[in-house]
Automatic annotation (TrEMBL), chain B:
Superkingdom of the source species: Bacteria
Ranges of residues in domain FAD-binding PCMH-type: 47-225
Entry annotated with the keyword 4Fe-4S: no
Keywords annotated in UniProt: FAD, Flavoprotein, Oxidoreductase
One GO term describing the cellular component: glycolate oxidase complex
Name used for this protein in its record: Glycolate oxidase subunit GlcD
GO MF annotation list: (S)-2-hydroxy-acid oxidase activity; FAD binding
PROSITE patterns noted in UniProt: FAD_PCMH (PS51387)
Pfam families: FAD-oxidase_C (PF02913), FAD_binding_4 (PF01565)
Cofactor(s) annotated in UniProt: FAD
């Protein structure tokens, strides 16, 4: 058992939810019990909180930022512990929630505010679904350069709260690099904002970075502005397989060349096997190129030549095949409706990726592992039950290579046996002070974040 | 949540100076009036204030010791790198200690395999690229002052540059920081990877303008140099045509490495000084576009950009590929600020951001404002990301000129906010623009930002009067009139 700092959360006396007050604020149809809303909420909460704790008494779906602010003002006065969420697809991610009286969902804050096509920005409310936003952007041949888990269900707010993206980090960076402005409701119910709607802006503190990946512990983001990118005219991916040492040479050569893959991922043998329908015992490198057509053709050709010179197999994929392959990869790394999957976010120094795969092969040969070759960030997924000790051993290895292992999704039993976040070093005390300043009563997502925050 | 202003006090500095000397040595402490003179201002020379003391730590530990002395005596301190900032971020506070990082100028680690470099804050921006260029890498953010500005200063201001359109500004290239907090405590934030568990304090710190502490070790991401770079210079007979070309280039899905525009006044200023011969004096605007990537891609995109320039009525498009020719085309733009010195005894530079689609309207309004106030305004513009640098030409020897010019600058900033932009794109708020923060942000917004400051610096000793408006620096009026003026427009 590991120790948490939970006194802060436990010191509050529980206040029963006042339904009439909530209904007066948000409208009667917007306040429900979890069962009334959808059975999925109760299931998710059971895993997010663990056994023996009271589930939230109600879920509220405000349809405007002002109503959400009023709900929060009310919660602040009554001392209700609040668990913010969007569509609930990642509600189980992070540490076990220590207490929650009320779920506040942004799902009905789903208006598109402004797509400034010529300025390459889009402003939308937090409950807008990622898939809907991409659809909107595609009509102008643009896209949001993120590839989050559960892309069909996930809302923008949830993606920001969990800083969740994937392979596109290679070219475009993370959620932190896309977010230009936010509006949010504070724990005390006041609405505040930071940043703006333009792509370059240094006025005031960068609260966008602070809120990105803060797991609903500092406030509830209601509106956000993202940088977007034009779609490229051509796309092709290459899957390279063979001996690890030779693959490492591919990685190193590509990163030192003028080639500009928008994604380059290491995939563990079981993951590579799933994608190719052919059993393999070695990792693979999956690269994606998007640019003008002649550039894509040339880059793919250069990778294939490089692979050939190193006796590696290289398969090019375009069109539907390419789209399907990347979708499959996403599904294997976070499948909706598979709560038994253990999902970890991992990081190691990029040049240590091959060592990491060796370690994985030795300790957990069935693990689905993905490491983004340039950043060293990635995913580790187990579809079968795992021991907490295995995760701790892998975490130690990641930490020895300047990285981390965060257990995003796992059974409550596992999360009780280890700290899902691990050690965050000397900055923890500052993080705890930030939390206390933004949420002095500790009512927002108590227990979900690092160090028991 | 605003702390009461600290008045300058009659301190007995002698024992305090002794404490600094004990920690930093005789050479690490400057206190003679003549020596303090050069530290009275940064790149914003119209604001001056003499520090009580200037200190030069050489290590994280020495910075920590120095800050602990400040904390013990409740002395405000201001961090300074090379002093090239343009918003008065390093302007000394009353009765303050200036902590200069110029002796912390070592590159601590170069890790090409993992594409990162660890530097001390006094390392000059350009040195980073020089240190890794042999291996084919570079550090992307390139402020115009890159041959003298320090990485510590870049981190404090979240500096941009002419190439940040495609590759981002400082915050997109900082992986981790070692920080000395305003209490003297030392913490590590971030690390060797772009995301680590916990709050993103690295992202919060970058751009905090010296108000949250001093970064003493900075881990930077380096990028691979592009295989091919091409620069195009197009000249237009109207600003509108140049603006339309910018929109068309972005609309065609091309993201240039950099895209810069200069107006007629700027063109003539640089031709007077550097005589490039390639900036036509009778052009209403020139557009500089740099495209990079694989040779095949740079070539194709250059060809497309050229075609778009001509489609929009460009008179002539010059193209350069080899480094020397590219430098010639860039030379005028790089010299733009300096050239203003020849046009007028003084110039005042602004740093507003606008949605790039509003360019035509905003430039028209700026011209009108210039006429109204009776000053010439030259415009240099990071066109790709909407970052406008209006340069107001004036003579500081004329009584009242600076006040008028500042008022004109303020009107320009309000205009930027009105069209949905920002009061600073890359220079920071500092001392210069703090009174305009309420144009963009509500009292609640500013209070929430101050929460962050409260966490890092509960005693308000780190650059205490910067960024945020205070009644003393801005007067009560600055606090509320924004809400009245732009009721209809969401101030975001």
């Amino acid at each position: 058992m590991w120790e948490r700092e939970i006194e802060m959360h436990q010191s509050l006396s529980i206040s029963p939810i006042n339904w009439q007050e909530l209904e007066a604020i948000a409208g009667a149809e917007s306040v429900k019990t979890l069962e009334q809303a959808d059975p999925k909420w109760s299931q998710a909460i059971a895993r997010a909180m663990g056994a023996g704790l009271q589930p939230p008494q109600a879920i509220v779906f405000p349809d405007s930022a002002e109503k959400l602010a009023e709900v929060m003002t009310c919660a602040y006065k009554q001392g209700w512990r609040v668990l913010p969420c969007g569509a609930g697809s990642k509600l189980t991610w992070g540490g076990l929630i220590q207490a929650a009286d009320l779920l506040v969902s942004t799902a009905r804050l789903n208006r598109l505010i402004d797509h400034a096509i010529g300025d390459l920005t889009i402003t939308a409310e937090a409950g807008v679904r990622f898939a809907d936003l991409q659809h909107q952007l595609a009509q102008a041949n643009q896209f949001l350069a993120l590839d989050p888990a559960f892309a069909e269900q996930a809302t923008l707010g949830g993606i920001v709260a969990t800083a969740d993206t994937g392979s596109l980090r290679q070219r475009y960076g993370g959620v932190r690099d896309m977010l230009l402005g936010i509006s949010f409701v504070r724990a005390d119910g006041l609405i505040a904002k930071a940043g703006g709607r333009v792509v370059k802006n240094v006025a005031g503190y960068d609260l966008m970075k602070l809120f990105t990946g803060s797991y609903g512990t500092l406030g509830i983001v209601t509106q956000m502005t993202f940088r977007v990118y034009p779609q490229s005219e051509a796309s092709e991916s290459v899957l390279v397989q063979g001996e690890v040492a030779a693959l490492e040479q591919v990685r190193s050569t590509v990163l030192r060349s003028g080639l500009t893959p928008i994604a380059m991922d290491w995939l563990s043998p079981p993951l590579a096997s799933q994608l190719t329908d052919a059993a393999t015992t070695v990792p693979a490198l999956l690269l994606k190129f998007q640019a003008i057509a002649p550039s894509v053709t040339l880059q793919v050709q250069r990778v294939k030549e490089l692979a050939q010179s190193l006796q590696l197999a290289a398969i090019g994929l375009t069109g539907d095949l390419e789209t399907q392959l990347w979708q499959q990869l996403q599904t294997h790394l976070a499948a909706a409706n598979q709560p038994d999957q253990t999902i970890c976010k991992v990081g190691v120094l990029p040049a240590s990726a091959t060592l990491w795969f060796q370690q994985l092969e030795r300790l957990a040969p069935k693990g689905f592992g993905q490491i983004h070759a340039a950043s060293g960030l990635g995913r580790l997924v187990f579809t079968e039950p795992v021991e907490a000790n295995l995760l701790l051993t892998l975490r130690r290895f990641c930490q020895e290579h300047n990285g981390f292992l965060t257990v995003l999704q796992a059974t409550p039993a596992i999360k009780q046996q280890l700290d899902p976040w691990g050690d965050v070093g000397t900055a923890l005390s500052v993080m705890q002070l930030v939390k206390r300043q933004f949420d002095p009563n500790g009512v927002l997502s108590p227990g979900r974040f690092v160090g028991g925050i | 949540m605003l702390a009461p202003e600290k008045n300058a006090t009659q301190r007995n500095w002698q024992p305090i100076i002794q404490e600094f000397i004990t920690v930093l040595g005789e050479k690490g402490v400057v206190r003679r009036k003549e020596e303090l003179l050069v530290y009275e201002c940064d790149g914003l020379t119209s604001y001056r204030n003499r520090p009580a003391l200037v200190v030069f730590p050489r290590s994280t530990e020495e910075v920590s010791q120095a800050i602990k002395i400040c904390a013990r005596h409740q002395l405000p301190f201001v961090a300074r790198g090379s002093g090239t900032g343009l918003s008065g971020g390093a302007l000394p506070e009353d009765d303050s200690v200036l902590i200069v990082t110029s002796r912390m100028n070592r590159i601590l680690n170069i890790d090409l395999e993992n594409q990162q470099v660890v530097v001390q804050p006094g390392v000059i921006n350009n040195w980073v690229t020089q240190a890794v260029s042999g291996a084919g890498f570079y550090y992307a953010p390139d402020p115009s002052s890159q041959i003298i500005c320090s990485i510590g200063g870049n981190v404090a201001e979240n500096s941009g540059g002419v190439h940040c359109l495609k590759y981002g500004v400082t915050t997109n290239h900082v992986l981790g920081l070692k920080l000395v907090l305003p209490t003297g405590g030392i913490v590590d934030v971030g690390g060797s990877l772009p995301e680590m568990p916990g709050y993103d304090l690295t992202g919060l710190f970058v751009g905090s303008e010296g108000t949250l502490g001093i970064a003493t070790e900075i881990t930077l991401k380096i990028l691979k140099t592009a295989e091919s770079i091409k620069v195009l210079l197009a000249d237009f007979t109207s600003v509108e045509a140049a603006g339309a070309t910018v929109s068309d280039i972005i609309g065609a899905g091309i993201i240039p490495g950099g895209m810069e525009m200069m107006d007629n006044l700027s063109i003539n200023a640089v031709e007077d000084v550097v005589q490039t011969g390639c900036y036509p004096r009778d052009a209403a605007a020139v557009l500089l576009v740099e495209v990079d990537g694989l040779a095949i891609e740079a070539e194709e995109n250059a060809r497309r950009v050229e075609a778009l320039c001509y489609q929009n009525g460009a008179r002539n498009v010059q193209m350069a590929t080899d480094p020397e020719a590219r430098l010639t085309l860039w030379k005028g733009r790089k010299a733009a600020f300096a050239a203003m010195g020849k046009m007028a005894p003084d110039y005042y530079v602004q740093d507003g951001v606008i949605p790039r689609t509003k360019l035509e309207y905003v430039l028209g309004e700026i011209t009108k404002l210039g006429e109204q106030f009776g000053y010439y305004v030259a415009n240099v513009f990071h066109a790709g990301d909407g970052n406008l640098h209006p340069l107001v030409l004036y003579d500081n020897a004329q009584p009242g000129a600076l006040e008028q010019v500042e008022a004109l600058g303020g009107e320009i900033l309000k205009l930027c906010v009105k069209v949905g932009g920002s009061i600073s794109g890359e220079h920071g708020i500092g001392a210069d623009k703090r009174c305009y923060m309420p144009e963009m942000f509500s009292e609640t917004d500013l209070e929430t930002m101050q929460w962050v400051r409260q966490v890092f610096d509960p005693d308000r000793i780190a650059n205490p009067t910067k960024i945020f408006p205070t009644p003393r620096t801005c007067g009560e009026a600055a606090r509320s009139h924004a809400a009245e003026q732009f009721k209809e427009i969401e101030r975001f």
